[in-house]
Specification:
The protein starts with a strand and ends in a 20-residue tail after the last strand. It is mainly beta. It is built from 4 helices and 31 strands. It has 3 domains: 1-128, Sandwich (Immunoglobulin-like), CATH 2.60.40; 129-320, Cupredoxins -  blue copper proteins (Immunoglobulin-like, Sandwich); 338-492, Immunoglobulin-like (Sandwich), CATH 2.60.40. It has helices at residues 151-161, 311-320, 434-437, 479-482, and strands spanning 2-14, 22-27, 36-39, 43-50, 58-61, 87-93, 99-105, 115-121, 137-146, 172-175, 192-196, 201-208, 215-219, 224-229, 232-239, 242-244, 249-255, 262-269, 285-291, 338-347, 352-359, 382-383, 389-392, 396-403, 414-417, 422-429, 447-449, 451-453, 458-466, 470-476, 487-492. Strands 20, 21, 22, 24, 26, 27 and 29 form a 7-stranded mixed beta sheet that branches. A 6-stranded mixed beta sheet has the order 10-9-12-17-14-15, with no helix packed on it. It has a 5-stranded mixed beta sheet with strand order 11-19-18-13-16. Bound molecules: CU-O-CU linkage. CU-O-CU linkage (C2O) binds at residues 59, 61, 74, 104, 106, 247, 416, 418, 473, 475, 477.
């Protein structure tokens, strides 16, 4: 089937947190924007009509875009921006993936308000999920960040100065666009209400659309069974806390099994980056789970807070997920053509961050301590070379070691690859040590992701098969870092047939 939408991107007047009404950029006058729901195998057609004052593009985060690389959306990578007053039609298939993905603006910091869910149901519909119990209902839960300032202006400040400290922390965390009533002067109509019935099962499709903040997600007195992440099914995993980094999604079943009442769902920051303590809002972004039959005025209960620097809890969640192995699904490649060792540095003396990749034979000596604090004149901090484009042969198998460094502080960079899922074979802390890590690679049921939250002060090993010709962005999904250049592009060459080659660009592809 064809699923067709028109996205009118334009001004929306909105008032949150007691601020006078102000104008944000939003799709179809809504925050979040519309949910695109399709079935596996469908064709999605979205007409973007840019009525906003800004250049615009939309990225379909996690969609493989096989045969449709021109629809991927990152500005200046696969397309020039759609100028104010102009249109562009995104046309692509959603095949070989099921679950929750999302879409967002891929230019400036405009994805702060230009985002929404992309739900891919099985071909057979919701009855065909490979997990049980079958949910009675589904609910999209999009975590976000809200700034009282104009995000386009914020981006200009960061970009023109190269100074991320000019990116102020968000004024609030949001759930489905609303901050919740724990913030000063945040009214009840700025709280999202999720109505449930006792003992029914809900499939929560949780998306982290925040610009710069990984989040812990909890619902008071309820637990989750995680059944998917990044639109790939996982082995069911029981937990009372979900860690979700910007760019990632988690599908979790929740049974409304608590006493009739009202309960907070809460999003709180995970950020171990700042040694001197948090410089961001410590208020939970909240929504309310309200049972049928509860008295509307009951004060909801809050879930116990996970500390902002609780790396153990974050790592436990992220490293315990494994894939649900299903017949006919791709399995992890056991041989590797190309190995890459990737670190983040400041590049040259222009103080822009860059991805620095080295082939294994050329890697720095093991004695190099990536987790040490980098001083200003340190080669760890400033490198004279960085990788911008890396060419891969069609069907080449790539293994990447993503090593976090400590440029300013230890951080967990959420590294996102366009055009592919990759398998996460192993993750750990400190300096990557191949001899110790390789025997622990999960080559049986590693989780599939399009975004990996590389452990803070640590590393992750991923593999993928370059079976999708095109230009594919790989970057940190913290927008503050992406803007400083923490990204690179894979150029995947054409395969032997027309089907495995990049098609000609569509007629309406915007010109620069
Ligand atoms: Cu969701 Cu290039 O990003």
């Amino acid at each position: 089937a064809v699923v067709e939408h028109t996205f009118n991107v334009g001004n929306l007047s909105i008032s949150q947190l007691c601020q006078p009404a102000r104008i944000i950029t939003a799709v179809n006058g809504r925050l979040p924007g519309p949910t695109v729901e399709a079935r596996e195998g469908d064709t999605v057609v979205v007409h973007l009509v840019n009525e906003s004052p800004y250049n615009m593009t939309i990225h379909w985060h996690g969609v493989f875009q096989r045969g449709s690389p021109w629809a991927d959306g990152p500005a200046m990578v696969t397309q020039c921006p759609v100028k104010p007053g102009a249109n562009y039609t995104y046309r692509f298939n959603v095949t070989d993936q099921e679950g929750t993905l999302w879409w967002h603006a891929h230019i400036s910091f405009l994805r702060a308000t230009v985002y929404g869910a992309l739900v891919i149901l099985p071909r057979g519909g919701a009855g065909a999920y490979p997990f049980s119990p079958k949910p009675h209902r589904e609910e999209t839960v999009i975590l976000g960040e809200w700034w009282n300032a104009n995000v386009y202006d914020l981006q200009q400040q960061v970009f023109l100065t190269g100074d991320t400290t000019r990116m102020p922390p968000a004024d609030a965390y949001t759930i489905n666009g609303k901050p919740g009533d724990l913030y000063n002067c945040s009214a009840a109509n700025q709280t999202y209400n999720f109505r449930v019935r006792s003992n029914e099962t809900y499939l929560l499709r949780i998306i982290n659309a925040a610009l710069n903040t990984p989040m812990f997600f909890k619902v008071a007195n309820h637990t989750f069974t995680v059944v998917g992440a990044d639109a790939a099914y996982t082995t069911p995993y029981e937990t009372d806390v979900v860690l979700i980094a910007p760019g990632q999604t988690v599908d979790a079943l929740m049974v409304a099994g608590a006493a009739v009442g009202r309960y907070y769902m809460a999003a709180s920051p995970y950020d171990s980056a700042i040694p001197q303590g948090p410089q961001f809002s410590m208020t939970n972004g909240t929504a309310i789970v309200e049972y049928a039959g509860s008295a509307g005025e009951d004060k909801p209960q809050l879930p116990p807070r996970t500390e902002y620097n609780d790396t153990d809890t974050a790592f436990r969640f992220l490293s315990n997920l494994t894939a649900l192995v299903l017949p006919g699904k791709p399995t992890v490649p056991l041989s590797v053509d190309t190995r890459m060792f990737v670190t983040a540095h400041y590049y040259g003396d222009d103080a822009s961050a860059g991805v620095y990749t080295r082939d294994f034979p050329d890697r720095p000596p093991v004695i190099f301590d990536y987790t040490a604090v980098a001083s200003d004149n340190d080669t760890l901090k400033y490198t004279t070379k960085s990788t911008k484009v890396r060419t891969l042969r069609y069907n080449e198998t790539v293994e990447m070691v993503l090593q976090n460094t400590r440029l300013i502080a230890k951080e967990s960079h959420p590294m996102h690859l366009h055009g592919f899922n990759f398998f996460v074979l192993a993750q750990g802390f400190g300096n990557y040590d191949e001899a110790a890590a390789a025997p622990r690679f999960n080559l049986v049921n590693p989780q599939e992701r399009n975004t990996v939250a590389v452990p803070t002060g640590g590393w992750a090993v991923i593999r993928f098969v370059a079976n999708n010709p095109g230009m594919w962005f790989m970057h940190c999904h913290f927008d503050a870092h992406l803007d400083l250049g923490l990204g690179m592009v894979f150029e995947v060459q054409d395969g032997p047939t027309a089907e495995t080659s990049v098609p000609p660009p569509p007629m309406d592809l915007p010109q620069c």
